[in-house]
Design brief:
This protein is α/β, with parallel strands linked by helices. The chain has six helices and twelve strands.
């Protein structure tokens, strides 16, 4: 909701073109940047119905499946590391396969960067090959929204609600690693600039 609040506020600045506001996020922030491209999220989180013109997500968790996986049609760029064991890239491939745009396939690009771990773009982490992350990640969980709006974690077939969310996610979470990679970071920057240029930003 905070991202959509910003989307509503920014057009008040006369120097900003309201039709060219994008959203970009990293790791947890990438989850918001990615799912803000889905129509059901816009319907619930954007009071005015405003939509972002594009979305860039670095290393997002892609394990949430909406019942109606319909995007706004705005272009989306996902970039993640091939060695990311905190938020595995295959979840993003699966998400794209189940998503669609308003008039056909979803306008989503996935760039998987070789030899790259989670947070490959972090400059300080480039000093290390990889570091263990002590907090388990729920990215290996599969949350599927049902027709009634509820969610089921499909690996355990348990229905998820506010009372048991932490317990259910803890059962399917795993620990992983983070590590910087200057080559992957440079490649991702190039991908981002090309994506912005193609979108006329």
């Amino acid at each position: 909701r905070a991202a959509f609040g910003g989307l509503d506020a920014l057009p008040r600045e006369p120097r900003i073109d309201p039709d060219r506001i994008g959203v970009m996020g990293f790791s947890k922030g990438a989850i918001a940047a990615l799912y803000a491209a889905y129509q059901p999220v816009v319907a619930r989180a954007s009071p005015s119905g405003a939509r972002f013109a594009l979305h860039i997500a670095y290393s997002p968790c892609c394990g949430l499946r909406l019942y109606e996986s319909l995007t706004t049609g705005a272009p989306v760029l996902i970039q993640t590391g091939a060695l990311d064991d905190l938020v595995p890239p295959e979840r993003c491939s699966e998400l794209i396969a189940t998503s669609r745009g308003p008039a056909g396939p979803a306008n989503i690009q996935l760039k998987i960067l070789p030899e790259a771990h989670h947070a490959f773009d972090h400059p300080l982490l480039s000093l290390f090959e990889k570091l263990p992350i002590t907090a388990p990640s729920p990215a290996y969980c599969h949350l599927q929204q049902q027709a009634d709006g509820s969610f089921v974690e499909t690996t355990s077939n348990r229905k998820v609600d506010g009372s048991n969310l932490n317990e259910v996610l803890a059962a399917c979470s795993r620990k992983g690693h983070a590590g910087g990679n200057e080559q992957a970071d440079a490649a991702a920057l190039g991908n981002t600039l090309a994506f912005l240029k193609a979108a006329a930003f």
